[in-house]
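quick q for whoever's on today - can somebody do inverse folding on this one?? i tried earlier but teh output was garbage lol. tokens:
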């Protein structure tokens, strides 16, 4: 979960021409892609990790049926967004932008505070889990 929360914090509110919030992609700098250089879809990967992390500890069909579709939606969403962006900006421009972004530095302005925010959120969610969900997150 901490990894999912850091991905979420790194992916929210940033210019990303490849994924959610792509309308602000005009501000995206391929020479300083940040988390986008690692994954085009950090928010959707956070959703997949969150959902997948909740299936094994619950260990029953009901929870697999609850969290499985969230993971599937995140995975399918990545493919759908890629296809949509390729149609919107053109295959060549999309591919060139992604190739340029892949090799850029992961650290950008605000990276440190976003990582800290993601890590600080984890114990907060652990504390709130029994209050909001009704079951402690760490039962064992």
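ok took a stab at it. sequence:
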């Amino acid at each position: 979960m901490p990894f999912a929360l850091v991905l979420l914090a790194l992916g929210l509110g940033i210019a990303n021409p490849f994924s959610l919030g792509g309308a602000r992609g005009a501000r995206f700098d391929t020479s300083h892609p940040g988390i986008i250089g690692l994954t085009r879809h950090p928010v959707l990967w956070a959703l997949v990790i969150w959902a997948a992390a909740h299936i094994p500890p619950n260990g029953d069909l009901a929870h697999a049926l609850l969290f499985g579709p969230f993971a599937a939606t995140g995975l399918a969403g990545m493919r759908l967004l890629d296809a949509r962006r390729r149609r919107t900006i053109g295959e060549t421009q999309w591919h060139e932008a992604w190739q340029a972004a892949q090799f850029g530095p992961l650290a950008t302005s605000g990276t440190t505070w976003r990582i800290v925010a993601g890590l600080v959120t984890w114990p907060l969610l652990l504390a709130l889990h029994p209050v909001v969900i009704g079951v402690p997150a760490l039962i064992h």
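fwiw The chain has one domain: 2-132. also The mean pLDDT is 87. so keep that in mind when u check it
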